[in-house]
């Protein structure tokens, strides 16, 4: 049987780092943690568990701080609806406000709904954000606007 490589020749193999390495993935694609967080939150089964929401929130934190509107919107909703801490809800409210100002329809809808409720109840602000969301095609915002008291 003949050897495939003559004995006098050295063989060098080229290798690449695995793309599936967690450290490589996050440095090569800074949006990967955000995409993973959104996938987790949108998963019907996983997205309902507290521990998964906590993990997703941690993954959304850095993109939200960097001004990524979708991350601000999703983290804001998460903090407003799923946190027991008043401080976290305040931060969530501010993140929603930033995302709504940047034109995120879902954030505008959420902010409008929050302004319709107890602690934040300011119907003029609710109407403003719901009108913004409705102008972008939110049927839910349009329905809520119909139920709001008329402007004075």
TrEMBL record:
Highest taxon of source? Bacteria
* Any Pfam family hit: Sel1
Q: Where is this region: Disordered?
A: 1-29
The UniProt regions of compositional bias labelled Low complexity, in chain numbering, are 17-29
PANTHER family the record matches: DAP3-BINDING CELL DEATH ENHANCER 1
What is the protein name for this chain? Sel1 repeat-containing protein
* Native organism taxonomy: Bacteria, Pseudomonadati, Pseudomonadota, Gammaproteobacteria, Pseudomonadales
């Amino acid at each position: 049987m003949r050897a495939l490589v003559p004995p006098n020749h050295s063989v060098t193999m080229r290798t690449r780092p695995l793309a599936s390495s967690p450290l490589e993935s996050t440095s090569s694609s800074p949006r990967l943690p955000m995409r993973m967080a959104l996938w987790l939150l949108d998963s019907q089964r996983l997205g309902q568990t507290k521990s998964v929401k906590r993990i997703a929130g941690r993954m959304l934190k850095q993109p939200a701080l960097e001004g990524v509107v979708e991350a601000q919107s999703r983290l804001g909703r998460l903090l407003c609806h799923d946190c027991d801490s008043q401080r976290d809800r305040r931060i969530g409210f501010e993140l929603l406000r930033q995302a709504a100002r940047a034109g995120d329809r879902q954030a505008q809808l959420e902010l409008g709904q929050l302004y319709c409720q107890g602690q934040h109840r300011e119907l003029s602000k609710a109407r403003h954000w719901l009108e913004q969301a409705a102008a972008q095609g939110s049927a839910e915002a349009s329905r809520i606007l119909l139920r709001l008291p008329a402007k004075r």
